[in-house]
């Protein structure tokens, strides 16, 4: 790192993050593949279009280029004179529409770092982490929706190295202000069009219909009975995969014997209309589904099934006691080699490292590294090396969500995993809870079946469960002690788990609570990212956190 870089705290921190991500300084972004289907214009592109069109004319003959990236760090538009020297250099150095400019991919740069720190950032020449970008100086300015406070993307003003940073910053912020103003104007029009489409859709059918817009969700009454089984993130993924023209029909499995047909139609101005049709007899008012238990006696949803049968390494992330180790064993080979990070503290790091190397050369099909987050940096570096080499057995590692969020070394190892499996905490598994009680009860009692009264089920469902499955196992062991079957009432539960006197959440609120908790877990506690993932404003997220009594 140069002396100039080392003297600037922001640059120094970004370089350290880039090194932890494993970015190679000589990396040059490749031209993105053209096989992906074309999507309709995003809200960001539509808002930026008039401003960038006008600015583009003014840039003719000038050595300045504008790079517009979305909130995921993907380059969505370039503006500038392609015949100029800098226009030629922008393309030669891999800056095409679709290029990933996140720090994880290309290290310290104006787009990725602006998204990382949520503010404007200047990058001068050699401060760029990868050599390909050191020809440029730039200023990246986040584009923030004035209504929701959500970052919609980044505008990066790029010039040749040595250009005056203050001029680049002033130009960037001026253009961003115009784009942000247009975002507000478009939002009002888009919400009106979405509401019109929603009313038209609900007037023609008695099916469950919901509409998703930018920070807006609308639904008719029929949707409520399905929300206990289908979370908003699942529906948003269907919208992301929908084709831009016509109707996309998919089937969604919500339990062992129940499927919902989902028709997705994108609205040209932004958003989508979804029609949900349960595929079983008399399905509109339904009782809670029964997820399919696996051989371990626990219940796993689509998360576990999504990585079963896949190749490549897996990082299993979750709270203590949530079932990470069981999930790791269920993913792959029946007789894996299992190593525990805790043993390194008991037996010594050198012996543990030697055992890891021996295991990696043993010819085993699968190597599970449990409690990876308890390891010291030298052992984490060794795991990084094994993951990068691709020569080791299939590595499946477990770590706590807190460690991944707070420890840069742990996060850098997780970033190298080919697949990432998030195990939700017990308090978020509302739809799974009856089947979980049945599976864990049978496991404790050796197969005996028990019935939980509605009040007992409600009391247990509303517990915070900080100890997750381990705590549930302890509580049920106490409840079932000395019993040979029968009905479990609230009075049979430990006093600490009989619930409180607060008003119970309705089905829709429980589903919303579960979706918010899951989004916070996925965003590692970052409320801006969680709100973005849910499609709501940060203000709305905080209001729902308070209303649903979610600790934050």
Task: Kindly provide the radius of gyration, computed on alpha-carbon positions and rounded to a whole number of angstroms.
Answer: 26 Å
Helix content: 40-55%
Mean pLDDT: 81
- In spatial order, strands of the major sheet run 2-1-5-4-3
Distance between the termini: 38 Å
Total count of strands: 17
Stretches where pLDDT is under 50 for at least 5 consecutive residues are 1-6, 34-41, 281-297, 501-507
Structural class: alpha/beta
- Give the count of helical stretches: 21
Q: How can the largest sheet be summarized?
A: 5 strands, antiparallel
Form type: globular
Strand residues, percent? 15-25%
Structure write-up:
The protein has 552 residues and is of the alpha/beta class. 41% of the residues lie in helices and 18% in strands. It has helices spanning 3-7, 9-20, 43-58, 85-92, 103-106, 110-117, 165-203, 232-241, 302-307, 324-331, 341-347, 349-360, 377-389, 401-406, 408-414, 433-445, 454-461, 468-480, 507-522, 527-534, 538-547, and strands at 64-70, 75-80, 121-124, 136-144, 151-160, 208-212, 217-219, 247-255, 258-266, 272-278, 314-318, 337-340, 366-370, 394-400, 419-422, 450-452, 486-488. It has a five-stranded antiparallel β-sheet, with helices on both faces. Helix 11 packs across helix 12 (349-360), helix 19 packs across helix 20 (527-534) and helix 20 crosses helix 21 (538-547).
């Amino acid at each position: 790192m140069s002396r100039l870089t080392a003297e600037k705290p922001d640059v120094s921190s970004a370089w350290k993050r880039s090194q932890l991500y494993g970015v190679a300084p000589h990396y040059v972004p490749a031209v993105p593949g053209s096989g992906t289907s074309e999507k309709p214009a995003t809200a960001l592109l539509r808002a930026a279009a008039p401003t960038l069109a006008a600015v583009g004319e003014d840039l003719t003959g000038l050595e300045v280029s504008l790079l517009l990236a979305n909130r995921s760090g993907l380059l969505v538009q370039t503006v500038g004179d392609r015949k100029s020297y800098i226009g030629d250099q922008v393309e030669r150095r891999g800056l095409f529409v679709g290029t990933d400019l996140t720090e994880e991919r290309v290290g310290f740069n104006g787009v990725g770092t602006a998204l990382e720190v949520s503010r404007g950032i200047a990058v001068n020449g050699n401060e760029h982490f990868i050599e390909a970008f050191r020809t440029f100086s730039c200023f990246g300015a986040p584009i923030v929706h004035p209504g929701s406070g959500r970052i919609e993307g980044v505008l990066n003003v790029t010039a040749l190295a040595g250009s005056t940073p203050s001029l680049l910053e002033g130009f960037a912020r001026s253009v961003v202000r115009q784009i942000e103003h247009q975002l507000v104007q478009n939002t009002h029009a888009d919400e009106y069009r979405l509401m019109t489409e929603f009313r038209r859709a609900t007037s023609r059918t008695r099916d469950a219909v919901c509409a998703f817009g930018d920070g807006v969700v609308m639904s008719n009454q029929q949707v409520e009975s399905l929300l206990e089984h289908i979370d908003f993130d699942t529906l948003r993924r269907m919208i992301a995969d929908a084709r831009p023209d016509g109707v996309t029909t998919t089937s969604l499995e919500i339990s062992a014997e129940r499927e919902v047909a989902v028709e997705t139609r994108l609205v040209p101005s932004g958003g989508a209309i979804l029609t949900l049709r349960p595929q079983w007899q008399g399905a509109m008012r339904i009782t809670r589904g029964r997820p399919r238990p696996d051989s371990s006696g626990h219940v796993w949803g689509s998360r576990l099934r999504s990585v079963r049968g896949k190749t490549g390494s897996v990082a299993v992330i979750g709270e203590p006691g949530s079932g990470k180790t069981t999930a790791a064993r269920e993913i792959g080979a029946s007789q894996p080699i299992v190593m525990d990070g805790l043993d390194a503290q008991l037996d010594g790091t050198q012996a543990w490292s030697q055992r890891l190397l021996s295991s990696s050369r043993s010819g085993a099909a699968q190597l599970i590294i449990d409690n990876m987050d308890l390891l010291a940096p030298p052992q984490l570096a060794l795991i990084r090396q094994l993951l990068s080499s691709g020569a080791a057995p299939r590595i499946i590692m477990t770590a706590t969500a807190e460690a991944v969020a707070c420890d840069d070394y742990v996060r850098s190892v997780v970033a190298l995993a080919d697949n990432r499996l998030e195990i939700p905490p017990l308090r978020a598994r509302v739809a799974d809870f009856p089947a979980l009680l049945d599976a864990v009860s049978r496991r404790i009692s050796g197969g005996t079946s028990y019935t939980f009264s509605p009040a007992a089920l409600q009391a247990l469902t509303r517990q915070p469960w900080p100890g997750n499955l381990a705590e549930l196992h302890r509580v049920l062991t106490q409840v079932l002690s000395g019993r040979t079957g029968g009905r479990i009432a609230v009075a049979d539960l430990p006093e600490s788990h009989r619930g409180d006197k607060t008003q119970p959440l309705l089905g829709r609120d429980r589903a919303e609570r579960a979706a918010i908790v899951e989004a916070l877990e996925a965003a590692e506690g970052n409320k801006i990212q969680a709100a973005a993932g849910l499609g709501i404003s940060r203000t709305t997220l905080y209001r729902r956190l308070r209303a649903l009594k979610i600790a934050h």
